[in-house]
Design a protein that fits this description.
This protein has one domain: Arc Repressor Mutant, subunit A (Orthogonal Bundle). The chain is about 50% helix and about 5% strand. It contains seven helices and two strands. α1 crosses α3 and α5 packs across α6. The longest helix has 17 residues. GO terms for molecular function: DNA-binding transcription factor activity. This is Rrf2 family transcriptional regulator. One of its GO terms (cellular component) is cytosol.
Length: about 140
């Protein structure tokens, strides 16, 4: 449903938020290892999120990536999805067909509208603060 860059972006911001809540800055290599993403790919995703003021990048030997605590209440998952994937997740065909619409629907069209609406609602109503607060286990360090 999400592109790989969006999946990695969502994983990265959740991981960074988790660490930031404990006042820990995290390096690119730490993030990439924790979310199981290639480092170069993670760097590109984080660059987009930094440009869009989702994460903050601090340079230098004591630097790293952080998300300011006061921002965690206002950053919604939908912001990240929009930055990395645009709005197509809310409008595209469930089967990936180009010409699917209300007038020429694919077999999943009307059922998929419900799924898309539920997804949009969840993404627009879930903040990073909620994600960090709801995590009872450290999902990034679980093995197999």
């Amino acid at each position: 449903m999400f592109s790989k860059s969006c999946e990695y972006g969502l994983r990265a911001i959740i991981y960074i938020a988790q660490q930031s809540a404990q006042d820990v800055k995290v390096s690119l290599s730490t993030i990439s290892e924790a979310i199981n993403s290639p480092q170069a790919f993670t760097a590109k995703v984080l660059q987009q999120l930094t440009r869009n003021n989702i994460v903050k990048s601090i340079k230098g030997p004591y630097g790293g990536f952080i998300i300011e605590n006061d921002k965690m209440n206002s950053i919604k998952l939908s912001h990240v999805v929009k930055i990395l994937d645009g709005d197509s997740i809310y409008t595209s065909c469930g089967l990936g067909l180009d010409k699917c619409n209300d007038n020429a629907p694919c077999p999943l069209h009307f059922k998929f509208i419900e799924v898309r609406n539920q997804l949009k609602n969840m993404l627009e109503n879930t903040t990073l603060k909620m994600m960090v607060s709801d995590m009872s286990t450290d999902i990034f360090h679980l093995k197999g």
